[in-house]
Amino acid sequence: MKRLGILGGMGPKPTIKLFQTIVDMTEAHNDQENIHIIIDNNTKIPDRTSFLLDNTKEDPLPILKESAKRLEEAGADIIVMPCNTAHYYYEEIKNSINISFLNMIEETAIYIKKRYPDLKKIGLLATDGTIKMGIYDKMFSKYGIGVINPCKNDQRYIYDLIYNIKENKEQKSLDGVYVTMEKLEKEGAEIFIAGCTEVSVALDKFDIEGKFIDPMEVLARRSIEFVGAKLKK
To answer: What topology does CATH give the domain 105-214?
Structure first.
């Protein structure tokens, strides 16, 4: 079985969730049947959205590359990265290492095409950086899937949801999140993408209602398959 490396720390809670999800989804009857996972929970990686919105901030790419190389040197055969916004740097990180690197955004598009072949549009709940750089728009367009983003006014509700989790602040209400989702549905969104790993955490933490695809679950499933372990039926 191959060794899996998790390029984490963006933030720690999504890193924990990915690790937990992989363990829960693996068919294992003893310790030895689980996957050998190496985690670099690098919390020193600068905020991705801050730099993408203002390039006078610290560029996260050099430290992202360092983490990827550290995982390779530690013996990982493949790397995954539970941060949607950081996938803006996917190609540059991939070119800095000599092992495989699963693309969470593309794996999600592939999953949608297989499971929902007639789906035309998704509603994206993501960081301002992910939306500004069109990270989902560019990848999903290759698979014939349209992406609907919240309007600028409604995006603040998603921003607050994400950064309240990052900053351990109280989430006083989900009303704005649900209003945003309703508007996206009216614009044609057939399903929602948890396009930030903190949104993935929020789905469980707040039991958010709606038809969602969680890229972290997609990534967990593909990680298990790729390393040669067995998925639970």
So the answer is: Rossmann fold (3.40.50)
